[in-house]
């Protein structure tokens, strides 16, 4: 995290842009003022107001402001090309509590390196976090990504990035809206994913398009088990329908494998915003511009850029 903060401060750009990027990282306004404006908190607040408050969409049905990221979550990064003993040693030296384990789905109080037969490439592995929380968790991911880059970790089409959110506070209506909102946005989300993670092209993160009467089936479900039966209790969907029964989480499986800290944090915060929005609202505008209804402008601009870049 500190490395990314310093990179932003060193950018040859305006104070306003630096403040916007730091706010997006979740840095407190007082700290940003000390770093960028010689303690001028008012300047920082004006930027916050412009980019984070005035971007709130208000109409007859929606009045939603993206919240600061403070959610409990977990992450799984699939990669290859690193000897896991070396990876463990370097991560420990960087301050990450980490162990090498056999393949398992048990949540630990430490990071773990496990095998995964689905990953192609020599010296493959999956690195799985403990329960993380908010920006402190994001800082740990920053360290892990730096180490993965330092040790030469590689990604290919067989690799994925899985995000788990604590779902203990979700009621049934929230779950239903998460599924329906993701399904409505599926084409748009596919647009900022590589071909290997779109539609139903990947058997480990299948989409919802082939499920007939999907919305009606979700609406009619009276509990989470009935929702999981819509998917034949198969975990290999873009949203894993059995993750709550197994881990008390909502797992998102679509993102392509990456060790890029910026990509990972954008995706985590996009999903966080969608879950927050889904506690009350359903998506009406399924276009890229419609993402503004529940995201900070910087996240929407990032995914517009990704969509254009991948289309090219």
Summarize the structure in words.
- By secondary structure, the chain is of the alpha+beta class.
- The chain has three domains: 2-54, no CATH class; 72-162, Alpha-Beta Plaits (2-Layer Sandwich); 168-241 and 266-311, no CATH class.
- Helices cover 44% and strands 12% of the residues.
- The protein is built from 13 helices and ten strands.
- The chain has helices spanning 2-9, 15-25, 29-36, 41-53, 84-93, 134-150, 172-184, 186-191, 214-220, 224-230, 243-247, 261-278, 297-311; strands spanning 57-58, 63-64, 72-79, 98-100, 111-114, 125-128, 132-133, 161-166, 239-240, 249-252.
- Helix 2 packs antiparallel against helix 3.
- It starts with a helix and ends with a helix.
- The model is unreliable at 54-61 (pLDDT under 50).
Q: Percent range for helical residues?
A: 40-55%
Ranges where pLDDT stays below 50 over 5 or more residues in a row are: 54-61
Class based on secondary structure composition and strand pairing: alpha+beta
For this structure, the quaternary state is single chain
What form results from the Cα inertia axes? globular
The tally of helices reads: 13
Q: Tell me the total number of β-strands.
A: 10
Mean of all residue-level pLDDT scores:
91
Strand residue content: 5-15%
Radius of gyration: 20 Å
Q: State the distance separating the first and last CA atoms.
A: 31 Å
Task: Give the ordered list of helices and strands.
Answer: HHHHEEEHEEEEHEHHHHEHEHH
Number of domains in the coordinates? 3
